[in-house]
Amino acid sequence: MAQSFFGGVHPNDKKAATNKKPIEKLPPPAQVVIPMSLHIGAPCKPVVAVGDHVNMGQLIGEATAFVSAPIHASVSGTVVAVEPRPHFNGTNMLSVVIENDYQDTLDPSVKPVENPESLTPEQLTEIVKNAGIVGLGGATFPTHVKISSGIGKVDTVIINSSECEPYITSDHRILLESPEEVIGGAKLLARIFQVDKVHLGIESNKMNAAQLLRQKIEEEKAPVAVEVLHTRYPQGAEKQLCQSITGRQVPPGGLPAAIGCAVFNTDTTAAIYRAVYQGMPVIRRIVTVSGSGIMEPKNLECRIGTPIAELLNFCGGVSEKTYKILMGGPMMGNAQHDTDAPIGKCTNAILAFAADEERTVEHPTCIRCGRCADVCPMHLQPLFMYQYERKGMMEELQAANVMDCIECGACTYI
User: Fold this and answer.
1) Which of 132, 280, 284, 406 is disulfide-compatible with 70, CB 3.0–4.6 A?
2) Cα–Cα distance for residue pair 248/340, rounded to 1 Å
């Protein structure tokens, strides 16, 4: 039974441009630039050198800490550089640059697991770790860490298929085109956490996907329940999703595990299936390319390390009036300063916006109407937090629970 959460806003979802467009494969580029930081946590250590030949799926970046995730080659070819290159977070990041030989030669390590049904939760978790799986909804927290810390504590596993950000339809298309992978990954998570049922939360503006999933679940007798939720932003924020599905509220400063929940993105769940049944690590992303500045909006399957410019060009380029390019959605995405920067594991969308949509104000004036507090899903008081920050009142800002802010942007939108 779908519950509700406090606050939230109802922006136009702007999904019509791509929600009926099947995923197209973007031809891999002549070079991929793969940063050694594609996750939250310690960057990886390169294990290849200039001149080495690498195969697709081969380990090229070794995890250096528990909160880290290995990185793999997304094409086969020759390593031509190991050096700092532009990163999508605005910095320069140590990266492995591979000259594509266009053979897509699979590494011998990429092979299905023998007898997957006999694997223990610990063995499945190790496979997830070695495949470099992270939160593919944008958070990029290493999935094996979330699983390891939740085993024995979690009684509710949730697949986050809400996709509440405007414009983005990549998860929607995955559900429509690869439901077996999502359901298969959900079944593996049920085994790992030893729960009877996995809940898949999806917003009501994706009913075709919800109906297809229910049909497939019934055919397979899978332990998955599709929960259709209200279309409201930020329905896909994990704390709000937990409340919508279970009625439980994550305490201030806490994580979903505090209330017995573990949340996994749609493509993360499918990646777990691919790692176990195909042996494939994370080497590609499904990316929505859309916005008023994009000539031909599309959903693309792209190799990790593909320059943003390649995606834009494949979609007919951008309008001359384009003033901003975002990686991610319009509410939480990051503006890009260099289209030579590559896409990463976190990239679910590239959006371009034309000049007539610019609505920002250089020096906004708060009139204390309180609407920001009405829509804040974390019960915060953004109007006071804004004033505290402007005046450098850091102690008061901390006391206002600024660290509970999930940066959803609902206050800015309203």
Assistant:
1) 132
2) 43
